[in-house]
Amino acid sequence: MSSQLNTGGINISVVRELARRELLECLDKCAGTKAIIWDEQLTGPFGLIAEYVLLQEHDVTQMFQLQPKRIPATTAQNIIFLVRPKLPLMDIVADYVLKDEESKASKKEFHIFFVPRKSLLCIRKLQERGVYGTFINVDEFSLELFPVDSDVLSMEIGTTFKECYIEEDMTTMYYVAKSLMKLQALFGVIPNIFGKGKCAKHVFDLMMRMRREQAGNEPQITSQIHNLLLLDRSVDLLSPLATQLTYEGLLDEIFGIQNNTIKVPPEKFASSSEKGTQEIPTERKQFLLNSTEELYAELRDKNFHAVGPTLSKKAKILSSQFDERRGVKTLDEIKQFVNKLPHMQAAKKSLATHTSMAELIKEVTDKEEFLESLQVEQEFMNGIDTDKINPYIEDCIGRQESLIKILRLICMQSVINNGLKQKVLDYYRSEILQTYGYQNFLTLVNLEKAGLLKPQGSKIYSTLRKTLRLTVEEVDELNPTDVAYVHSGYAPLSVRLAQFLAMPGWRAIQDILNQLPGPTVEAVQNITGHRKRRGSGSSIQSSAEEKKVTLVFFLGGCTFAEISALRFLSDQDDVPVEYIVATTKLVNGSTFLESLAEKVMSST
User: Fold this and answer.
1) How many helices (H) does the chain have, and how many strands (E)?
2) Is residue 293 pLDDT above 90, yes or no?
3) H or E element in which residue 435 lies
4) I need a labelling partner for 261 at 20 to 30 A (CA). Which of 153, 313, 520, 522 fits?
């Protein structure tokens, strides 16, 4: 995977190598054979930095997931817990240790590493359970950002928005600031910082405090990242709710992409021998998705309507390449063809895989329910009938369709309308509770606290829509000229803010910025040993010919569609910026809302 990490605006493989080295240093603190017991939220992300083969080289013999009331048996000398600093996990860890201590024959040594920071509350919990003294090592593994691709980094913390806006816990913002300080240590101090929103200001203030604490002991490295844009998710709540219409976005919407891995129904991927029998596999087929695969790198950011023609074109080219063998006569020609054969066979396999995936997507997008839901979304985004009870939403509730789907549409209507009329809000709330049960009351309260579902205030969406061109009437989905292609007509507000920052600068939209929630950040960082950059930070344009790298950090999650839109801007000759994306978590509308839902325990 590391090969594709060094092809972006900065060499992200450096982040991966540092993380690998620090992980192995943690493991090497424990002499002898080792069994790792993972917090299940970490297994996938850690797969992005270290393969099992590498861990085996450092005496890791077994790996297990940390689960309540499941005590895995192991003969390893060392038991290593790698966990997030979450209190509920400490009880599971304590149960395991106490259970093992009951066995008098056991001579195991216990170690616990917190990712990314130790927590005093967690340590206190271990002390209360009487197991703290059992651990040989109680340490931390300070890994905040996982490298997802050459232009994407993720913290893989899906609860950030809920913690910040519902629980009023800003701990993750501290982790964000620490991760940015680490990036500055690797790639140089970022000269220009911009931000919008409460969390953005909080991260900026923490960064400034951390710099002061360093007291000039910063690495003297020429800045490779020229601008940092901190975007609070609360500034743009509409974009994560809108259905993504890019190839990668739809794969995530329908099947879910976790740590570059997707699991899909196996029927269309059965081999020719399996198709001839009754025994078609039932277990989901797993694929790795990243830019190392040539075809996927080309397809992922396209609007789904452009995927079919692209696959068809690739199939014709590949077919003509295989047909060349008929004209091969001389030994040199045979040798050249044989040398090309492995690449052609890999391309054929890749083409078959993505043709099957596209067919699976099409089965969903051709359904009437998908098209009707998408039409309602498009009407909302164009400001049509946003202030009254929507008949389609009523019908969905009557048919008891997925509650997440219904909440997604209602929240979209609320965000666009800057809240709902009290009568409309009361109606939706009453219908949901009566149809889906009163255990969902706390979820509705959370959505209101988060600003997704609320009584109506002054309308600003219509102003944003016109000033920032959030909706574009005629979008060329096959050959796009605007970022609005990612939603077939809607341009993510977050990406428009990044676009206006690049050209002509935020000064041109100061009135709009003042209407968006939270403070605005514009600052220039002094760089010791380098000439201070002039300017008020109102624009990230440069007189230099080469493109400058801008790191866009989404605080609270971002979608694959937003990443595709930023990649589209990076590819434009008239845009002086190459974008790198960092986020607390990659989300879609469903996973974003699920992270805010309150999991109510049943009486059973």
Assistant:
1) 23, 15
2) yes
3) helix 422-436
4) 313
- pLDDT, position 526: 82
Cα 248 to Cα 191: distance, rounded to the nearest angstrom: 33
221 or 8, greater pLDDT: 221
C-beta of residue 216 within 8 angstroms of C-beta of residue 184: no
CA triple 294-247-349, angle to 5 deg: 40
Which are the contacts of 16, defined by CB distance < 8 A and separation ≥ 6? Answer: 1, 2, 5, 48, 49, 147
Contact 163, 171 (CB under 8 A): yes
Instruction: Locate 366 and state its tokens.
Output: 């051709």
C-beta separation of 248 from 490 below 8 A: no
The answer to whether the pTM exceeds 0.85 is yes
In angstroms, the CA 97 to CA 78 distance is 12
C-alpha distances (whole Å) from 341 to each of 141, 267, 324, 327, 355 are: 44, 28, 11, 15, 21
Q: What is the mean pLDDT of the chain?
A: 90
pLDDT of residue 341: 79
Q: List beta partners, residue 579.
A: 550
Contact between residue 344 and residue 324 where contact means Cβ atoms under 8 Å apart: no
- Exposure string over 533-549, b if 16+ CB within 10 A, otherwise e: eeeebbbbbeeeeebbb
Sign for the CA dihedral angle at 375, 377, 382, 384 comes to positive
Task: Reply yes or no: is the peptide bond before residue 517 cis, omega within 30 of 0.
Answer: no
DSSP state of 487: G
Distance between first and last Cα of the chain: 45
The CA distances from residue 377 to 160, 380, 392, 416, in Å, are 26, 5, 11, 10
Q: How deeply is 42 buried, as exposed, middle or buried, from its count of CB atoms within 10 A (0-12, 13-18, 19+)?
A: buried
Check: CB of residue 297 under 8 Å from CB of residue 311. Answer: no
Token pair in block for residue 518: 């939270």
Tell me the C-alpha distance between 526 and 11, whole Å: 24
Tokens read off for 137: 């090592």
Contact (CB, 8 A) for 573 and 412: no
Residue 68: is the preceding peptide bond cis (ω within 30°)?
no
CA 386 – CA 380 distance, rounded (Å)? 6
List, edge to edge, every strand of the sheet that includes 261-264. 257-258, 261-264, 285-288
Sequence-ordered list of residues with C-beta below 8 angstroms from that of 35, at least 6 positions apart, any chain: 60, 61, 62, 63, 64, 72, 74, 76, 78, 79, 80
pLDDT at residue 510, rounded to an integer:
96
